[in-house]
Amino acid sequence: MLFGVNVNNSWLHEAASVMRCKHGCLPFLYLGLPIGGDSRRIQFWKPLLDKIHKRLSVWKCKNLSFGGRLVLLKSVLSSIPVYFLSFFKAPSGIISSLESILCHFFWGGCEANNKISWVKWESICLPRENGGLGVRRVKDFNYALLGKWVWRCFAEGDSLWCQLLKAKYGQDSAGRVRFSEGVGSSWWRALNFVWSGRGLIDPRWLSDNIVRKIGDGRSTAFWADSWLEVGPLARVFGRLYDLADNKHISVADMFQAGWALNGNGWKWRRRLFVWEEELVAQCVGVLANFVLQGDATDRWVWNLHPSQSYSVRSAYSYLTASDGSSMEDFASFLWVKSVPLKVNIFIWRIFLNRLPTKDNLLRRGVIEVHQELCSTNCGKAEDAVHLFIQCDVYSQVWHLVLNWLGLSTALHVSLGGHTEQFAGLGGNSKTSRNLFTIIWVSVLFVIWKDRNDRIFQMGNDSGVTLLERIKLQTYWWLKSHYVLFVFDYPFWRLNPLFCLQAIM
């Protein structure tokens, strides 16, 4: 097929006829990627956005629980855009559009019917230990994917494609491809943008973690390369680098010439001042006890992975590591393996106070002040702590659960204290705490569903009815996860503590 650049269509059509081949126009698809398009334009990314829209259709949004939406959302985000994001840097407008699609889908909305986003998208994208759901943040994922190309430019410097880049964009004194912003194709400009780290909290995320592991020191630049823990000497001792007369000397040559305090390796453009000589002494201290390995060659290593080779996962983890506040204290209550994912997300929203309780609805202008009272008609305003712990009606459910377990205690009236106390009712072993946490989660979930039935279905179930639901729900959760839980439901219903102790 014949394609023309800056030629009119009639000439292209005539040339294709002479050569007896088809003719096409730019951009065109090759191996699933658009060739010849401008990745800075919205139209370039439209096929990707349309494909994601199609996968996250409205019917799936309406028929899937929060857990199902989260699984599908992660699946789509880790498959469909990866190919694009591996080659092109997404503009900020495209990232916003993509994340808006994902956010609307997660909260059950669509273009025609928006729903409240109870947790901001940046928080959802945090790792679980930092209070998020572990959804990939598109911008950082894009950087991590493109970072692998930068790594390959260093690690595969002798390959044919790297030789082509050197011939086109130049090379530095060490014979490596030169990164310089503002020149080249859109793909090359994207790599330079990623290498510079612009727009990130840590702009040196690549340069500080792609380092040289010294062997004989012959192919490593003494000043410019990062081969010591402190980083490149040209950056740490910038004044000395400016004065050095041998800026391009290798580690091996510097070592052979002598890098002791009065060694011949130190060559300056002028005589040093006293304070500059003190800098030399500090630099010599950094170099102390460093020994070359004559039988090995220098190589590039990636600091963030045990294999010392670049991985997108380790790069993404590094880019998102410092965000958010730690929720390690509640990790055992948030993500219980034997509990369905949708219920875990429900508990996550409780700890963040992001459930549609009436106080939150009032704050967002959804209901009026007179509608804030608790749905159990206890006469008090509804918030998360009141609803699940302090309400006169639902506090009786907790007492019924304790009686069913054969326990007697006064429960805390704060969420954190209540959580910790209930988990420890059976002892402090990990299995025991996990089992009682499952029951605690089940009680909360049953209370929430009953609260919604009272509001939308005019329900009025008794505490005994709710207790029976808790028993049955907990039974199936335990049955599906614990192999040693071999009891039938009637036995579990009458002897819960015996059944729990059998699998502790």
Question: How would you explain this protein's 3D organization?
Answer:
Helix content is 51%, strand content 4%. The chain is mostly helical and 504 residues long. Among the domains are: 210-302, no CATH class; 328-503, no CATH class. The strands form three sheets. Strands 1-2 form a two-stranded parallel sheet. Strands 3-4 form a two-stranded antiparallel ribbon. Strand 3 and strand 4 (33-35) form a beta hairpin. Helix 20 (392-405) crosses helix 23 (463-481). The longest helix has 27 residues, at 430-456. The radius of gyration is 31 Å and the shape is globular. The protein starts with a strand and ends with a helix.
Structure summary:
The protein is mostly helical and 504 residues long. 51% of the residues lie in helices and 4% in strands.
List the helices and strands and how they pair.
Elements: E1 2-3, H1 9-19, E2 23-24, E3 28-30, E4 33-35, H2 42-55, H3 58-63, H4 66-77, H5 82-85, H6 92-106, H7 121-124, H8 138-155, H9 160-169, H10 186-196, E5 210-213, H11 233-236, H12 238-243, H13 251-257, H14 274-287, E6 299-302, H15 312-319, H16 331-334, H17 341-351, H18 358-363, H19 384-390, H20 392-405, H21 415-423, H22 430-456, H23 463-481, H24 489-494, H25 496-503
Parallel strand pairs: 1-2
Antiparallel strand pairs: 3-4, 5-6
Domain Reverse transcriptase zinc-binding: 310-398
Organism: Trifolium subterraneum
Protein name: Reverse transcriptase zinc-binding domain-containing protein
